[in-house]
Design brief:
Organism: Algoriphagus boseongensis
Low-confidence stretches: 330-338
Number of strands: 19
Number of domains: 2
Distance between the termini: 49 Å
CATH architecture of the largest domain: 4-Layer Sandwich
GO molecular function: RNA endonuclease activity
Structural class: alpha/beta
Strand content: 15-25%
Shape: globular
Order of helices and strands: EEEEEHEEEEEEHEHEHEHEEHEHEHEH
CATH topology of the largest domain: Metallo-beta-lactamase, Chain A
Helix content: 10-25%
Protein name: Putative mRNA 3-end processing factor
InterPro entries: MBL, RibonucZ/Hydroxyglut_hydro, Xnuc_lig_assoc
């Protein structure tokens, strides 16, 4: 006899009926477990939030003085007899997978995740389960990431060349996660690093948890000549805005997994594209599923149809569920207010 699903998808989000709790709901609910601080997963309006301790400053910065409780990695807590725990997702600082167990059955929701350690967040942890709910933002074979060391070598060479040419190097990256990853790994000896206000504000929130080089926020008082040869980190929403006028002459670059497609760089009209993602590539997705031991896989947000079809071909019970998560697209192509 088949047991009812531990987690179901409804109009408000991913729901555990037995525990009466949601995971990353996109509509207001009484109780929500939040995997990480990106705005498609952590939304305003819930009565009670539960998340990893390191994510609390992030969601409070974005959502205000919410009612939030923090737990540690692997710390088990029960709600109506269902056992939950959070495990590192390796996506951004404080990002979690959610393990759900009831009567010996185990489900895991990955949230957004990546398997390559980035030196910023707690590395991804494989969690054994019977059913895995996985994102597949980059779930086609065309996506294969270089080691991040090689990507940052490319960024440093680009910045150094621009400095020698008397230009400002402007890198577009989302304010939470990617911007701090860039700060952590660029060669700050090349020159000064400036930031857009949105990046500076979020970085200030994260500095107590991270060792990052010093940065200077660009303001009305910033002098153009001081920016020559500098690196500027800004959100994608700054591209083409009046804010950019102060930076002339400059070259632009975008850091995103979508830069693996040549057309993606053209659509953003930037001079350079650097393939740097906070999500798994094709092989990362497959290896994480294999290591989980899951027999059933539910695919959400991304190349769901292609990825689930491939999983069925290699023997998994795979299906697709629709969500309101947007993956990397949400963080790179929409306006950012944080």
């Amino acid at each position: 006899m088949n047991r009812p699903d531990l987690l179901v998808f409804n109009a408000k989000g991913i729901y555990c009926p037995i525990a009466q709790v949601y995971i990353d709901p996109w509509k207001p609910v009484n109780r929500a477990i939040i995997t990480h601080g990106h705005s498609d997963h952590a939304r305003f309006g819930h009565k009670h939030y539960l998340t990893h301790h390191s994510n609390i400053p992030i969601i409070r910065h974005r959502l205000g003085q919410i009612n939030v409780e923090g737990v540690e990695w692997g710390e088990k807590f029960q709600i109506n007899g269902v056992t939950f725990s959070l495990h590192p997702a390796g996506h951004i600082l404080g990002s979690s997978q959610v393990r759900v167990e009831y009567n010996g059955e185990i489900w895991v929701f990955t949230g957004d995740y990546k398997t390559e350690p980035d030196g910023i967040c707690t590395p991804y942890e494989s969690v054994a389960c019977h059913t895995l709910i996985t994102e597949c933002t980059f779930g086609i074979p065309a996506f294969k990431w270089k080691p991040q060391e090689k990507v940052f070598d490319e960024i440093n060479l680009w910045w150094d060349k621009n400095k020698k040419d008397g230009k400002t190097s402007v890198l577009f990256a989302y304010t939470l996660g990617k911007a701090q990853r860039i700060l952590k790994h660029v060669d700050s000896s090349i020159g000064p690093i400036y930031t857009h206000g949105a990046v500076e504000n979020m970085t200030d929130v994260l500095r107590p948890q991270l060792a990052l080089p010093s940065t200077t926020q660009i303001t009305r008082e910033t002098i153009n000549k001081d920016l020559r040869g500098a690196l500027v980190i800004a959100p994608p929403s700054a591209h083409g805005s009046p804010w950019m006028r102060k930076l002339v002459p400059y070259e632009t670059g975008t850091c995103s997994g979508w830069m693996a497609f040549r057309g993606a760089r053209a659509r953003r009209a930037t001079d350079r594209g650097f393939v740097l993602s906070d999500h798994c590539d094709w092989q990362g997705l497959l290896s994480s599923i294999r290591e989980s031991g899951a027999e059933r896989v539910i695919c959400t947000h991304g190349y769901t149809d292609i990825f689930s079809r491939y999983l069925r071909e290699i023997g998994y019970q795979a299906s697709v569920e629709n969500t309101q998560y947007a993956g990397e697209k949400e963080e790179t192509e929409t306006k950012e207010s944080a």
